[in-house]
Amino acid sequence: YETGSIHLWIYLCDWKLAINGEVISRSNSSEEEIVVALKHLNGKHLLSIIGLDENTVEVTFSGEIVLTLEGNEAVYEKEDDFFMLYTSRGNLSYNKQAGFTIESAA
What we know:
By secondary structure, the protein is mainly β. It contains one helix and nine strands, in the order βββαββββββ. The mean pLDDT is about 95.
């Protein structure tokens, strides 16, 4: 996979990736479908990360790409991180117990 100045690690949540409102892949899609869908993120800019509610986080990229992250209480715990965003300035994560957490770079 491509890497850049940031690293977004989707972790313990269900997710769906949409372009122009059309879902092109989900966390339960085949590996082949996921690989094809992720290629759409290459070269795109992360524009925002917004908590829509306790159970849903929306990550927006340039090119009308939206990654929606959703908790699944049947599978995951409240303290399980939905994602971790690693940057040179620090790291951002989210879970239902703590909400958004920022860890400054050393």
